[in-house]
Design brief:
One of its GO terms (molecular function) is zinc ion binding. It catalyses: Hydrolysis of DNA containing ring-opened 7-methylguanine residues, releasing 2,6-diamino-4-hydroxy-5-(N-methyl)formamidopyrimidine. It is elongated, with a radius of gyration of 20 Å. The two termini are about 35 Å apart. The protein has about 290 residues and is α+β, with helices and mostly antiparallel strands. The chain folds into 2 domains: about 130 residues, MutM-like, N-terminal (N-terminal domain of MutM-like DNA repair proteins, Alpha-Beta Barrel); about 120 residues, Orthogonal Bundle (Helicase, Ruva Protein, domain 3).
């Protein structure tokens, strides 16, 4: 799933490549992906792309006051073309959900792999009309977001820190992968309770969060969309590395599996050497 660093890189890529270009047409191939009806996709035709910004994991292409907002979800992606294929997109078995073509022939597809379709496209006059954006918490990489802001948020939640970091209504943009990396860097158990963390632990977690996300944003910046997925995987130290050696201590990286996701951690670095029970309601083994 694309998270803040990859979405930020896509935002910067689109800002550079789409900015100033005029939209020729928008073709929707997956009707289920389009979550709005007014304005229609045809309203984007003839409008200039005047800006691209990120809201958490949402990308927002501003076409002169009408916004094409999309969330790539678990398996969505953006494919850029210097020359959009002449073959029209049609509903069916194709992974293409939407195609946008500019008048100079450039453009992009929004694609989604797999059978579980959750890519979401909104065409709105105000990004705040998108429910997912309206619910977003603060961006933890925003310039004005401080350690004190972070501490106040944690103090108000007696929930496990792993789930809290992933909650978009609490922190915008962090997902499963980077929360694993942040907790490993902070040497903190995924099951630690947010409100129980002392000042030293909060500072360590805040520093790890800014470091992990900041380094990932720098690493992704300037890469074309086709290279971002591999770059993300290459940069992971624990996420997706079950059974491999921890690059810090050499212990075996383990995982905990839930109904629709899993996370990875290092017992030596994060849980005092104790493995976490691999059940939905896991607790530290005694």
């Amino acid at each position: 799933m694309p998270e803040m660093p990859e979405v930020e890189a896509l935002t910067r890529f689109l800002r550079e490549h789409a900015g100033g270009r005029t939209i020729d047409r928008v073709s929707v191939a997956a009707i289920s992906a389009l979550k709005t009806v007014d304005p229609p996709p045809s309203a984007l035709a003839g409008r200039e792309a005047t800006g691209v910004v990120r809201h958490g994991k949402f990308l927002d292409l501003d076409a002169g006051g009408i916004h094409l907002v999309f969330h790539l979800a678990r398996a969505g992606w953006l494919r850029w073309y210097e020359q959009v294929p002449a073959t029209p997109v049609r509903p069916g078995r194709s992974p293409i959900a939407l195609r946008l073509r500019f008048t100079d022939g450039t453009g992009f597809d929004l694609t989604e792999a797999g059978t579980k379709k959750s890519l979401a496209v909104h065409i709105v006059r105000d990004p705040a009309e998108v429910p997912g954006i309206a619910r977003l918490g603060p961006d933890p990489m925003a310039e004005g977001f401080t350690k004190d802001d972070f501490a106040r948020i944690l103090a108000g939640h007696r929930t496990r820190i792993k789930g809290l970091l992933r909650d978009q209504s609490v922190f915008a943009g962090i997902g499963n992968a980077y929360s694993d990396e942040i907790l490993h860097t902070a040497q903190m158990s995924p099951f630690a309770l947010a409100a129980s963390l002392d000042d030293v632990a909060v500072e360590r977690l805040f520093t790890a969060m800014r470091r992990v996300l900041g380094e990932a944003i720098v690493a992704a910046d300037g890469k074309p969309p086709a290279e971002l997925k591999d770059a993300k995987r290459t940069g992971m130290r624990v996420h997706g590395r079950t059974g491999r050696a921890c690059p810090v201590c050499g212990d075996t990286i383990r995982k905990v599996t839930y109904a629709d996701s899993e996370f990875q951690y290092c017992p030596t670095c994060q849980t005092g050497g104790k493995p976490l029970s691999d059940r939905v309601l896991s607790r530290l083994l005694k």
